[in-house]
Amino acid sequence: MTPNPFANPMLDWWQQQWMKGTQPMARLQLAWMESLAESMQFEAQFIRSIAESGERMAQCFEGEAPTTPEEVQACYEKLVKEVSDAQMKRLEQASQLTEDFRQRLWEEI
Is the pLDDT of residue 104 over 60? Predict the structure, then answer.
């Protein structure tokens, strides 16, 4: 039986140590990317709610929408409340992201 020329205990040990060194960085990067993906999802939801309220705002001024100034004002106030609620939800989710990210980092460390 011929000895394996690539079987070197020092090389095997070095390869194991090298792989252990890169795994924590990869896990930290994964945690960061997951948090980034979540924040992008929250921003997309906020932008969607802004677009929907803009569409409804256009409907307030068209067709079978309210015709008196009071009705237009009521429609506008309703839409402003929806947008401000969406903004508050966005801020709440953003504050939770930092806690989630810290927790992920500590779990990986």
Answer: yes
